Amino acid sequence: MRIAVFFLFVFTVCAMIRAQGPATKPETRAIWAHVSQIDGDPAKGKAQIQQWADRFARANLNVIYPWVESNYLAAVEQTDPSIANAKWDALGELTRACVERGMQVQAWYSFTYYKTRTSPEFTANPAWRAVRLDELVPDPQTGKVHPEWWSDVCPMHPQGREFQINLLLRMLDRYPQINGIHVEEPGFGYRGNCFCVLCQELFRKVYGFDQNVAPDGPEATELKTLGTTAFMRVLRERLLKRDPNLVMTANGGYNWRGERVLGRDWARWAGYGWLDGYAAQIYVDKPELLDQRTRLTIGDLAKDCQVSIGFDFSPPSIRPKSLTSEQVCRFVDVIRGAGAEGVVFFHAGIFTDEYAEALRAGPMKEKVPPPKPRRLAEKTG
Ligand SMILES: [Zn+2]
Question: Does the global pTM surpass 0.90?
Fold first, then answer.
């Protein structure tokens, strides 16, 4: 009898430790990695990839977000020969190296900005270019208008959205190890977009006055979210139709209220169940601020999707300095303590061996899988 009680006691303690042990709970441990920072020379670039992947694995990271631009995808499809590391396919090499080490790879992609004059979208149709207000209204100081930007795609054009989604689907054909899309700040990077012919015409027809009367007003905000919402909805549909295991996540600011004016309506998309996860970028050097902002995003969003928090190893307030290893470990604890389901580091180019060792010795000692998307977890139990 006493033996039975003893075993019951041991079992109960073990169960309690298991239930409370945060170190063994699934958690997203991701890093944003710029493929554009990988050397163009194949020998140097491949060595850099092995070093990155070893370092990610050393820190027990489990998800990698490689930065994939439309230009790169066009380059590997051999329509644009200008990107050196696309010639030997740095993205493919990085994906393979990370998957071999047990990590998931989800392509980090912007459908609106980080475009150039030679982006395949503009080669396909220059009318998909987003036009900024300063291209039309002269600067009061200089009296001149800004030259055409060619930096953003306007998501209001249905064929433009289709073009980009097909580009992404062909990417998934090419790299079957990539298991999802991580959408970069789904909207514009700047206010004053978009004044293309279509947007101006729609605005006038719907609201009865010109958009430049209130470029950041509630009408312009609503109109801007139509195109971005259409992109996210259709991308989600296509991904799930292709393979229900493909995940779709996004990143952006920590407070949706200030983001809708840029067309970033991620809180609503999470509410519709379109996002498996959202990573809020909180690039600060003060743990109190990190905690406060993390809690705001979680309060708004955690009911609808998994929330991860992204922080910068070299936040703007202390740049060019970087956080110490102790600060990095402390930040991971703050994010966990506030209840987030993951952490995302910005970025691979400044992720050092020292950080990796500190994480491995500290808050990321145990290897854990990323949490399953809720919709899949519900199905499989
Ligand atoms: Zn437009």
Answer: yes
